[in-house]
Specification:
The protein is α/β, with parallel strands linked by helices. The chain is 28% helix and 26% strand. InterPro entries: ADH-like_C (IPR013149), ADH-like_N (IPR013154), ER (IPR020843), GroES-like_sf (IPR011032), NAD(P)-bd_dom_sf (IPR036291), Zn-ADH-like_protein (IPR051397).
Length: 324
């Protein structure tokens, strides 16, 4: 079978298409033949060896992660054989392959008729979107600021904020097209984060301050976001797309602000039953049409380097899918 690997840090050109044996699922695992694979921006940072790589150490040669939608072809020892033949979705550590192995306990059954883009959001990106809103303790009628609102996670977060009862959703993104995209997915106000005065624009839109800020950019965006929080406002950090994790001076918290972080892996380890309930809740939203994934592009497995170029260009609106 074919798979994608990189043997050194570098640009998209280091991604190599290789031949490999078909993996054999171990106990508690399944083998899936993908129909679509959702690409993750964080892999572009890992591939370049940026600081975030220290949070996700892997030996060379390294695989690419992704969210796989496909059919179960085999199961490992002690794993329910009834899963064979089921259409399912799973987050995979080694996703850019003709056949992938996934952990059976976190499989998401895909309802009939659900498109591959939305189905592929259910294992990871949608749970992250829901998780950051819950970590921010969003209450009915509150104002939420969603950074990177046109991205794979961001545009789902905008939708879920509305589902959970947000009063006003302020979206930031780069450029008019992305802001139109965010508004089309439920944002009430769009602000271009490349404008130097974007915090002033946020304060103009929410004079009393923002109740919840959701930030996956880090760096300067994170630091300046503190200033737009209302008293008792909450900032949730869950990424560092800027390339810098960022830091928060403790003195800034004395103004009745709080900062927390979110990791899906940590959430599943801390509260696995709640995490499973979240998967069922998100599947219900998808079935009812309250949660939908926009697909920016579909590319073949041989186009993995182009997938990463698109991700790094920050031009995409929604998700990029790989179709083996």
């Amino acid at each position: 079978m074919r798979r994608i690997r990189y043997h050194s840090y570098g640009g998209p050109e280091v991604l190599a298409l290789e031949e490999a044996p078909v993996p054999v699922p171990e106990a508690g695992q399944v083998l899936i033949r993908p129909e679509a694979i959702g690409a993750n921006f964080v892999d572009t940072q890992l591939r370049r060896g940026m600081a975030q790589a220290e949070l996700y150490p892997r030996p060379f040669p390294r695989p690419l992660t992704g969210d796989v939608v496909g059919t179960v072809e085999a199961v490992g020892p002690g794993t329910d054989p009834g899963l064979i033949g089921q259409r399912t979705a799973a987050a995979c550590e080694d996703a850019f392959c003709d056949l992938v192995v996934a952990d059976a306990q976190w499989l998401v059954p895909v309802p009939d008729g659900l498109d591959a883009g939305t189905a592929g959001a259910l294992p990871m990106v949608a749970p992250v979107a829901l998780g950051v809103l819950r970590a921010g303790r969003l209450a009915h009628g509150e104002t939420v600021l969603v950074h990177s609102a046109a991205g794979a996670i961001g545009h789902l977060t905008v939708q879920l904020a509305k589902v959970l009862g947000a009063g006003t959703v302020i979206a930031t993104a780069g450029g008019a097209a992305k802001l139109d995209f965010a508004r089309a997915h439920g944002a009430d106000i769009g602000i271009d984060y490349t404008d130097e005065d974007w915090p002033e624009q946020v304060r103009a839109a929410a004079p009393g301050g923002v109740d919840v800020v959701l930030d996956a950019a880090g760096g300067d965006i994170l630091r300046r976001s503190l200033d737009v929080l209302a008293p008792y406002g909450r900032l949730v950090a869950y990424g560092a797309a800027s390339g810098e994790l960022g830091s928060v001076p403790v003195a800034d918290l004395f103004a009745l602000r709080s900062v927390t972080g979110f990791s899906l892996l940590a959430a599943r380890a801390a509260a696995p039953e709640q995490a499973r309930k979240d998967l069922a809740e998100l599947t219900g939203y998808a079935i009812r049409g309250l949660l939908r994934t926009a697909v920016h592009a579909r590319l073949p497995l041989t186009g993995a380097a182009e997938v990463h170029r698109l991700l790094e260009s920050r031009a995409q609106q929604g998700r990029i899918l790989v179709v083996p």
